[in-house]
Amino acid sequence: MSSFTVNVSGIAPSTTQTQLHDFFTFCGKINSIEHKDGSGTATIAFEKANSARTALMLNGGVLDGSTLTVTSDVVHPEEEHHTSDQPPHHVDQSDKPRAGIAAEYLAKGYVLSDSVLQKAIEMDNKHGISKKFLDYFNNLDKGIGQRALGPEQTISGKVQSTLGSATQQAKAIDEQKGFSKIAQDYYTKAIQSPFGQKVKAFYTDTSKQVQDIHEEARRIADQEKAKGGAHATPEAAGSAEKTGAVPPST
């Protein structure tokens, strides 16, 4: 099994391996973690190179009140994302834009400095958004639009004045046909919200600012609150209404 590793130091003595796993799993699938309690260091092996590159973005992030240093002994290549002719119905965590992953961290309650968020933006600008993720998001947008508005229509392309009634119609159709049971992920719900156009732009356009990541973190956190399972954490108080109950969305 191939692995792509990063080295982490500055880990708080109280930090457990489970906490490390929870923190770095936002980057993608983890193969293994080598960490001795109280050592202050760890080696984390990811399944994909892109996940390791995302982890390096987190250099300077805060876990358990301690600022982490994340490095690598090698340069991990930016992977090409191969897709089939069929629109994807699922995307891996490693396929997501780095800015989107950063927003998930903030919504979860972790502390990332604006310099870390800027690094995420720069990585998206340099490498672009993966074709698999763009295909997934555009197919989602088109599928909802067709069910609500008719052939060749998209939710994001609908004028804002009638977007509310259109998305409500899409939700009703989804419930009748069982779509809601098949794919009620964050993106489906978000694109049907009043912020649908902003949400799509955030995930498909590399042109964004640090404030955009904070705003997306608020949207993620607000949706978790609406589900009734989110609770504010002390570490979250200073960052964008973070909630402590937002797993990596798939």
TrEMBL record:
Record bears the keyword RNA-binding: yes
Q: Which organism is it from?
A: Gymnopilus dilepis
**Name of this protein:** RRM domain-containing protein
Q: Which GO molecular function annotation, any one, does this entry have? A: RNA binding
PROSITE patterns (UniProt xref):
RRM
Record has RNA-binding as a keyword: yes
Q: Outline the segment boundaries, as ranges, of region: Disordered.
A: 75-95, 221-250
**Pfam families assigned:** RRM_1
Keyword annotations for this protein, in alphabetical order, are: RNA-binding
Residue span(s) of domain RRM: 4-70
InterPro entries linked to this entry: Nucleotide-bd_a/b_plait_sf, RBD_domain_sf, RRM_dom
Q: Which domain of life is it from?
A: Eukaryota
